[in-house]
Specification:
- The chain is of the alpha/beta class and 457 residues long.
- It is built from twelve helices and 22 strands.
- The chain is 29% helix and 24% strand.
- Strands 1, 2, 3, 4, 5, 6 and 17 form a seven-stranded mixed sheet that branches.
- The relative contact order is 0.11.
- Bound molecules: flavin-adenine dinucleotide and nicotinamide-adenine-dinucleotide.
- The site of nicotinamide-adenine-dinucleotide (NAD) has 25 residues, from α4 and β18.
Length: 457
Amino acid sequence: MRHFDLVIIGSGSGNSIPDERFADQRIAIVEKGVFGGTCLNVGCIPTKMFVHTADVASTPKNAARFGVDEHLDGVRWADVRDRIFGRIDPISAGGLRWRAEDNENVTVYQGLAKFVGPKTLDTGTGEVITADRFAIGAGSRPVIPDVVDLDTVDYHTSDTVMRLDELPASMVILGSGFVANEFAHVFSSFGVKVTLIARSDLLLRHEDREIAERFTSIASAKWDVRLKRKTVRAERTDTGVRLHLEGPDGAEVVEAATLLVAVGRTPNTDLLDLARTGVTTHPDGRIVVDEHQKTVVDGIYAFGDISSEHQLKHVANHESKVVQHNLLHPDEPRSSDHRYVPSAVFSSPQIASVGLTEEQAVERGVRYVKGTQAYASIAYGWAMEDETGFAKVLADPATGQLLGAHIIGPQAPTVIQPLIQAMSFGLDARTMAKGQYWIHPAMPELVENALLNLPLD
Ligand SMILES: Cc1cc2nc3c(=O)[nH]c(=O)nc-3n(C[C@H](O)[C@H](O)[C@H](O)COP(=O)(O)OP(=O)(O)OC[C@H]3O[C@@H](n4cnc5c(N)ncnc54)[C@H](O)[C@@H]3O)c2cc1C
Ligand SMILES: NC(=O)c1ccc[n+]([C@@H]2O[C@H](COP(=O)([O-])OP(=O)(O)OC[C@H]3O[C@@H](n4cnc5c(N)ncnc54)[C@H](O)[C@@H]3O)[C@@H](O)[C@H]2O)c1
């Protein structure tokens, strides 16, 4: 049986662990799917390439108010898709080739890893291996909801919908979170009639309520948004799919050419037979880790979607760097920093947030003051004719320390970054607003004014 110093399960964020400092270690990487993981192949990167393309396709809709008349001649789906994957697929293939052929100390196993004993792994390739240490970054996969007869219809998840052969005339999207709202923007901008089915009373209900309410109201004007609906049964039709729903007005049906299921992601722990090696999991399936990303088994670490409550690439990257350090310096371990984890929804409009929502502040009894600023009242907002976007900041009334920040509107994920920086480094709102220049008339003036609008002494 071959023995390694380190085995990495999953080639997503885990692939960045072995660098030149590991040159004297024998390393195995086990990957069951496409090399490079979710973000590169079926997640952040292709979706954002589609989102930008959707932004380009939707400009004519908003052009007339600027006195510019434009029209969309068409969307060449095959060209859109092939531009994106024509860039991504070679990166994945190149990454695999580099690890498998050019890294002398690394062996790549292309199979489904499963523990068969303490620190003993079946690589799914016919070979069982052992190692002193393991780094588990096996990620998550789409949840398939319990809807009667769903298995009898052709449905897509984020894993497959970006590679459709052709654009459908219509799409029903089950779910109301990140994936649902990003793809609703993409496909509706390409001319697909989109219906969104949400269980909750709001889209993006994890966001600050005022932000989710604003988003839901904008989305409802563009898409057929069905809130408070339970999907009970799916049915195949001659032209696609029919969903049977129960909602506030009783039973109803929705039909579309294509169904996209986007109701969350579950960690891939069930594939790993972790009990064989003693690694424990939370009730929701995530691997239990401490602040050093260590599992309960000495020498076994986990990071990213398989263990984190934040299913975000910047978190997976951060945690994999912590694992990398702790593998190299076990006696001086680093801790992961989850104090201010930001997130962004790249839909239309865009949303970004960090820290507490107003509802969380109330629930936790945290004292706060609030400052808001509309894009419509800053100079660049006039330039963009934005009428719906705003920023909202929450701060401690005694110290001025920022507690949370939420932005809906153009380039929100970029505009929010100085607030993430201020929170991470403990810069108070007044010093931040008044202690630096803000380029005029640029979009960060939104942040400056939201800070100045905080009722602080
Ligand atoms: C559509 C979509 C859009 C997203 N957009 C964003 C975004 O804009 N920003 C953001 O921050 N995050 C985004 N995310 C989330 C982000 O992609 C994930 O948080 C991140 O990729 C997780 O990285 P990871 O290294 O933990 O796992 P992954 O990248 O998923 O890597 C895990 C790898 O392990 C492999 N694997 C699993 N089980 C086994 C096994 N038993 N044996 C061998 N191999 C195994 C898998 O095949 C996979 O390649 C998006 C996700 C999706 C689905
Ligand atoms: N921009 C980004 O950072 C980005 C983009 C895409 C995905 N992601 C990550 O991937 C994860 C998965 O995304 P997601 O959108 O699938 O999950 P999500 O958790 O964001 O949203 C899932 C939604 O589906 C709803 N839901 C659950 N079961 C349902 C059912 N049976 N019928 C109808 N609705 C149901 C939930 O109430 C929830 O609102 C996210 O949590 C996020 O961390 C991030």
